[in-house]
Maltokinase
Amino acid sequence: MSAARPVHVSPGAAHLPPEVLRLLDAWLPEQRWYPVPAEGVTHEPWLTVTFGGVADVVVALLRLVGPGLASGDESLVIQVPLVLTPTAEPEADTPDTEAAGLIGTVTTASGTATVHDGGVHPAAWHAYFTAALPGACEPEDCAELVGARRISGEQSNTSVVLPAMPHAAGRGGMLKILRTVALGPHPDVVIPAALTEAGWDGVPRYLGAVGLSGAGAGTRPGSGSGSGSASLPDAHLAVLSELVHDATDGFELACAYAARDEDFGERALELGAVVAQMHTALRRALGPGPALEPAGFMGVLRRRAAEAFADVPALAPQRAGVTALYESLSTRLSAVVARGDVVPLQAIHGDLHLGQALWSSDGWKVLDFEGEPQRPVSERTAPDLPLRDVAGMLRSLDYAAAVGQATDPHWAAHAQVSFLEGYRQASNGEVHEGTAHPVGGATSSGSALDVGTAELLLRALTVDKALYEVVYEFRHRPAWMHIPLAAVDRVLSS
Ligand SMILES: Nc1ncnc2c1ncn2[C@@H]1O[C@H](COP(=O)(O)OP(=O)(O)O)[C@@H](O)[C@H]1O
Ligand SMILES: O=P(O)(O)O[C@H]1O[C@H](CO)[C@@H](O[C@H]2O[C@H](CO)[C@@H](O)[C@H](O)[C@H]2O)[C@H](O)[C@H]1O
């Protein structure tokens, strides 16, 4: 056993020869987690991270520079862990070596080295793991990493299952290497840490994190230490949590029900209750936010819609309907505020969908508090309306009906009504404590949204989510673009 490994941070491309950077320029845009369309984008080395006592693992933090991308502190930064291994012979590129994460071989003045993707390499997993957990093992006898494997699939980050890792409640860990690094404490660290500390068991228990400048807010004291320089930016690189055993992905579960036309009502009801409890736990753990300010809120909705219209020409016919819906909402919200009512904001999940929920023998567990990865982090972490998460789940149930090819035309609507009922029932418990409105997240202490405004708000947030999804599908899965496009149509004509 050793102490937690210190993390060393150097500016620019220290430890990374230009040959490696050139290799990455070609490889990065092909990765599923690459966050933007690659055309015209260059990769500018920002920081390089190494781990004390580990020779061959180097993490490149690269700023994405290009047309339409934010710059300076707002830049999109991607995390690229690499394993550089000196070798005598260049390794041939075959399907086997690709699966093992071989990016290529470089020859520099100091010799020839293979370059592997650290996201799929045990040496890098070990480096992160021992940086997150004090007293963790050495690589040669690391029982904790036995059987470790990266999970496959459409992920925005890189997650590694550690089935043998012991913890207070049993065995099994999940190491998540964050592919998009944000300046400041990362919500996928801070929120699970706060919910775990508050004792809410609807989230996999938080165990530790890796950060640049020491333990950021919400990390275990002493874990993930950086090299301690006061000038280092605060940013998280990875998070470690308990593995939820025998879990089924919520989206796969719902699609399987939809494919059989089986009633998903009971599961959806339970999920609604868990989402309501999550909102209560977040409000208690992180405190209430400020009141919603209609002009600013509507400004953000309109800007996001304008961005979606600019990105996806197929959305053009919806522009007038979206504008009219937002206009009605703006008028109603202004009236709410004018009569002295307050709509409080709070920490929310921010990108809630069925794939962020695991169904286990212990009920539903909620994952991935990163927020919508395509949004700037300041927007993602800002206090928001809990109703935004509700809209996210409603959209997801619609996706499950479409992807699972439910033939029952009421499958999605029935699941959505059950979800809302579960949310309402669990929120009603809260009203007695004077903290939450059963639908809209407004306070019950003399200042609630009227039902009409709450419903309009939910429609607008559903459209906002569906527009985000249209852009997401346009970039990543064009064959599914019809699903959110149809939803925009439906909400506008309802
Ligand atoms: N603690 C956990 N226990 C079991 N499975 C998990 C856990 N955390 C994540 N997963 C699985 O990994 C997948 C990806 O995790 P997630 O945090 O959503 O990553 P991403 O941001 O890359 O989408 C989830 O859909 C889930 O199937
Ligand atoms: O991978 P993340 O969890 O970061 O989220 C992104 O990818 C999701 C898809 O993997 C995407 O979700 C959309 O598709 C889901 C079905 O695959 C559906 O259940 C969701 O409702 C829908 O939004 C998510 O929007 C995106 O941020």
